[in-house]
Specification:
Layout (H helix, E strand, L loop, with lengths): L2 H12 L18 H11 L15 E3 L9 H5 L5 E3 L1 H8 L10
Antiparallel strand pairs: 1-2
Length: about 100
């Protein structure tokens, strides 16, 4: 089999249509994210790093992650800060961090 034939075979196997195109799913949703962001905005109204102040572009970030926080900590404005999407992405991936004193 030539390289072109191998590639065509792989493409055909990947492009096969699934038998089902829908599935049922149970999803847990985080409640209170809006409240958390409002509380943060009462403390500060811009990205902690670059100063973007458009509320539509700001994300509420948790230094102590949601999954390991209790219900009170999840909504505590002192367990968070506002970041623009780029800085939030970097922070969420662990590529930037902050000391305890900010």
């Amino acid at each position: 089999m030539t390289e072109d034939e191998i590639i065509k075979t792989e493409i055909n196997s990947v492009s096969e249509e699934p038998e089902e195109t829908l599935r049922d799913q149970v999803v847990k949703s985080r409640i209170g994210r809006g409240i958390f962001k409002q509380r943060l905005r009462a403390l500060e109204e811009k990205c902690k790093l670059c100063g973007i102040d458009n509320p539509d572009f700001l994300r509420a970030s948790h230094p102590k992650h949601w999954r390991v926080s209790n219900n009170k900590e999840r909504l505590d404005q002192y367990n968070g800060f506002l970041l623009c999407p780029a800085h939030d992405f970097l922070f969420d991936k662990g590529l930037i961090s902050f000391c305890d004193d900010g």
